[in-house]
Design goal:
Length: about 280
């Protein structure tokens, strides 16, 4: 199994959203499991590494290995760790399906194997979950969190938002990814061999409503629609045109301007205990 194309790519508008992420705002399900300072954590699909560095800072006697197939984003993540002065995190270019190629990684070698907003971008998330389970020691956990695009919500109503959502979801599906995966992470864990009783399931949301939050969230989607790799994927798929994407960007700008604007991103979370 190899990695398919990553729908968004790593344009500045994409990295702006990933680099905002911290353990507090993106890993509430992990917090109860971080009380041992000597943990060994694998962060699979780490992107620009802000979560990985935050995790490492919380386990001063432990270590984080963070992997991502993108050379560019791994360089950025290394710079971020340097700027933060965090030294117990190692960033390597690597693929969860081909972890054997990464130095210092072995079966059962981690207490926590974590992937945030990654499974939705994989063509074979079940295979990825099985690999994550293999890498977790007995008694350790696999922790995943992904949003569910079918559960995205906003206010006030705007016809253009349905167009955005329909196009996004159909484009993700056209490259055989599941944009709605957040609701079935537990089912994937069960298929990967975890017992239902060993799987903790939760949901948490990101909300964007203040002027600054709206400017950030709407602005990045307006830019992503017209500048990132997502645009190229839409055009390649034939599901939308350049004009459609321009119109979607205008919709996002209009939503940004709505003083009573509100956006909710629902995230499914799973902590699967590796007992068998
Ligand atoms: C939405 S980003 C999430 C980044 C980071 N976890 C975060 O939440 O900020 C998804 C990341 O998964 C990476 N990715 C895609 N395929 C992968 C694979 N086969 N193995 C590991 N990472 C992969 C992409 O390069 C991208 O950086």
């Amino acid at each position: 199994m190899s990695s398919g194309p990553y729908l968004h790519g790593h344009h500045a508008s994409v990295l702006r959203s990933h680099s905002w992420r911290t353990v507090d705002n993106s890993c509430p399900h992990l917090l109860p499991h971080l009380n041992n300072p000597s943990l060994r954590i694998l962060d699979a699909g780490c992107g620009p590494g802000t979560i990985s560095v935050d995790l490492a800072a919380r386990i001063p006697l432990g270590s984080v290995l963070a992997i991502d197939p993108s050379v560019e984003v791994i360089e950025k993540a290394r710079r971020h760790a340097e700027e933060k002065g965090v030294t117990n995190v190692r960033f390597e270019v690597g693929d969860i399906f081909n972890w054997n190629a990464i130095e210092g990684i072995e079966e059962g070698g981690f207490d926590i194997v974590h992937a945030h907003q990654v499974l939705q971008h994989l063509q074979d998330p079940l295979c990825a979950m099985k690999e994550m389970k293999k890498l977790t020691r007995k008694g350790g956990i696999v922790a995943v969190r992904d949003c569910d695009f079918s559960a995205m919500n906003h206010y006030p109503p705007h016809e253009g938002m349905s167009k955005w959502l329909d196009l996004y979801r159909s484009t993700a599906k056209s490259i055989k990814c599941d944009p709605d995966i957040g609701k079935r992470l537990h089912a994937i864990a069960m298929q990967a061999g975890f017992l239902r009783d060993d799987i903790d399931v939760s949901v948490s949301a990101w909300t964007f409503s203040t002027p600054a939050e709206r400017a950030w969230w709407c602005g990045l989607w307006a830019e992503r629609s017209t500048k990132s790799d997502y645009k190229a994927r839409v055009l390649e798929s034939g599901l939308g045109t350049e004009e459609d994407l321009e119109e979607i960007a205008r919709t996002w700008r209009e939503m940004e301007g709505k003083e009573d604007g509100w956006f909710a991103v629902i995230n499914g979370e799973v902590v699967a205990h590796n007992r068998v």
